Amino acid sequence: MTQRTTLITGATQGMGRALALDLAARGGTVLLHGRDRTRLEAVAAEARAAGPATTVRTYLADLSDLDQVHAMADRVRAAEPYLDGLINNAVAGGGEEPLKRELSRQGHELRFAVNHLAPYALTRDLLPLLTASAPARVVNVASIGQEAVDFDDVMLERDYEGLRAYCRSKLAMIMATFELAAELRGTGVTVNTLHPAHLMDTDGVRAYGLTPLTTTDEGVRPTVRLLLDPDLATTTGRYFDQFTDVRAHDQAYDPEARARLMELTHRLVA
Ligand SMILES: NC(=O)c1ccc[n+]([C@@H]2O[C@H](COP(=O)([O-])OP(=O)(O)OC[C@H]3O[C@@H](n4cnc5c(N)ncnc54)[C@H](OP(=O)(O)O)[C@@H]3O)[C@@H](O)[C@H]2O)c1
């Protein structure tokens, strides 16, 4: 484990924080991302306490601004000699005001931007470093909450609702995972995605008015498995419900939908 360097997005609370502490306790280098400097330094201090021998560095970026995503990727590539793990965990959830449609800095629907465009842009920008560090693994934290992307209204200008926007953005993330995994076959970089656990005890769950049913550790275990399990060294382009390789929403297997999504995605993140 000592050679590993893993970047975790959205490490300042919820499952991201729990992932940070879990990986910090295992050694190596842990790179923590957050959008708020105070929260980020607080979790970095916790991570250093959890793994005194672990190197912990922090990266600040608001993922609702693609310029900040690209700038963060540039900083990671400039500062890190090695990166063999990327966990795209950060999320804009259903929201405290689910009927309030919000936009990213670039004017895209916020859930689509933070949950799909930002992790895709970050991963793509970091591919040179990941490939040079191969074998490397990308883990995209999605959800069992999935709804088909409506290509006539990708930005949900009609009938907006936060959980619907979240579910569409998570299916977009799953479709992009499958596409990227296929593109990266043979490079030593794997890309998988998962539903970590049902209704973990996080602010995101409570903010939407849902009652937590599980702990963040329930989600950490299957997520860390995708990052570290030697048995999954060559597994790529799969969607897991916790520990089980399962089928995602039907749209994820529709080649035309995937092609449309990727054409749009490449245009928007460029
Ligand atoms: N909780 C569940 O039951 C559940 C179920 C299925 C899937 N998941 C998935 O598991 C992952 C973790 O969920 P969670 O419940 O732990 O989330 P959470 O508690 O809401 O935490 C979300 C994290 O993302 C960060 N974030 C949000 N918007 C951001 C932005 N614009 N720029 C940068 N960072 C931003 C937050 O930063 P701040 O601290 O600054 O807000 C925080 O660190 C997500 O991908 C989620 O979809 C969760």
Please give a quick description of this structure.
It is built from eight helices and eight strands, in the order βαβαβαβαβαβααββα.
Description:
This protein is of the alpha/beta class and 270 residues long. The protein is built from eight helices and eight strands. It has helices spanning 14-24, 37-50, 66-79, 110-132, 162-184, 203-207, 216-228, 255-269, and strands at residues 5-8, 29-34, 55-60, 85-88, 136-141, 189-195, 239-241, 244-246. It has an eight-stranded mixed sheet, with helices on both faces. The longest helix has 23 residues, at 110-132. The radius of gyration is 17 Å and the shape is globular. The mean pLDDT is 97.
Order of helices and strands: EHEHEHEHEHEHHEEH
The residue-averaged pLDDT reads: 97
Strand order of the largest sheet: 3-2-1-4-5-6-7-8
What percent of residues are in strands?
5-15%
The small molecules bound here are: NADP nicotinamide-adenine-dinucleotide phosphate
Q: Structural class given helices, strands, pairing?
A: alpha/beta
Low-confidence stretches: none
Distance between the termini: 35 Å
Contiguous helical run count: 8
Rg result: 17 Å
Number of strands: 8
The main sheet comes to: 8 strands, mixed
CA-based shape = globular
Percent helix range? 40-55%
